[in-house]
Structures are given as C-alpha cells and as structure tokens.
Structure to design on (185 residues):
C-alpha cells in the first residue's frame, strides 16, 4: 500500500483475546464505535460477522467524513492476535471533491471578477503563482491530507480495539505498532 492510498492494515496483540471477541466488537459498533452511547457521527453497520471476525462500514456523510474508518475488517490471526484492514476511500473522496470545489471557485472568481485578474497580473509570474496555488490546494492537498490522516485513523482504531477488548496492546510487539508510527530516538 502506497503512502497516498487511503488504506491501512496491521495487527494488534491482545492478551488475553476473548473467544467471543467478534460479538464484543459487534456490541461496540452497535452502541457507538467512537464513544459508546453516541451514534450521531459514528453510525456504522455490520455487513458480515462470524466467529473469526467482522466487517463494518460507515453509514451517512457525517460518519464517512468524521474519522475515516469507512470500511473495516477485523479478524483473529492467532491465539492473542487480531488483524485489521481499513479503507477510507469515502473520506478521501469527500476531501478530493472539496478540493475540486475550491478550485472551481478560484477559477470562477478569476474569470468573473476583473479586479482579481488585474491584481494577479500586477505581480511578476502572478498567473503562474495563482494557478500553481489553485492546483496545489485543489488537486494535491486532498491527497496529502489522506496521507496525513492515515496514522491518526489507525491510532483511533487501535485505541477502540484495545478499549473494547479490555486489554492494552503488548508493548514489546513491534508488529503491533501502527504502520505510520515513528519511534522516538
């Protein structure tokens, strides 16, 4: 998975991992994934569940854009280990559309407001700077946001899994660190 791909996966060691962990996670998703009892910006639907894991997806615009846990699969991968795979394409699509709307507004303002064109023209390379900034904020920035967002979304999921399963992740499990984590030196 590339830096800009709105997907991440990983493992989390939980000791002990309850035998019925999928049912425990299902109750957490149904009661409010981010904060139990609150579903206003955390409305998720379970799409599949069995003894070895479950999959849930975000429903609605607010949930899709809130944290970016849009399509989540969690499954057992060992006696005390779970694996997760998350896609936040919905979150990224909203960011890209927002960027494109910003670019359209800038282009419309440039085309329809003559004083703006005159102001841009007064600077050396003004048009290059203006269109370069418009391209950056509308085409590149949403993908940078996606890359910046990835470790935060993963940290949120790992916190939820640890809280829900009643144990902290094993501190010595290097493979359990978030994919975007950096060690302090």
């Amino acid at each position: 998975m590339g830096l800009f791909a709105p997907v991440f996966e990983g493992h989390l060691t939980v000791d002990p991992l309850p035998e019925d962990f999928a049912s425990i996670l299902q109750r957490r998703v149904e009661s409010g994934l981010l904060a139990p009892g609150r579903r206003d910006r955390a409305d998720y639907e379970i799409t599949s569940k069995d003894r070895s894991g479950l999959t849930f997806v975000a429903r609605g615009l607010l949930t899709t854009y809130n944290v970016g846990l849009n399509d989540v699969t969690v499954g057992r991968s060992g006696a005390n280990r779970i694996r997760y795979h998350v896609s936040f394409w919905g979150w990224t699509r909203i960011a890209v559309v927002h960027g494109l709307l910003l670019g359209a507004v800038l282009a419309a303002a440039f085309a329809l407001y003559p004083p703006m064109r005159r102001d841009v023209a007064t600077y050396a390379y003004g048009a290059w700077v203006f269109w370069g900034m418009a391209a950056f904020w509308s085409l590149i920035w949403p993908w940078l946001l996606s890359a910046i967002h990835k470790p935060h979304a993963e940290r949120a999921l790992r916190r939820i899994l640890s809280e829900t399963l009643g144990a902290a992740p094993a501190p010595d499990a290097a493979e359990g660190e978030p994919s975007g984590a950096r060690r302090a030196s």
In short: The first strand starts at residue 7 and ends at 13. Confidence is low (pLDDT under 50) at residues 169-177, 180-185. The beta strands are 7-13, 44-50, 53-58, 71-78, 81-87.
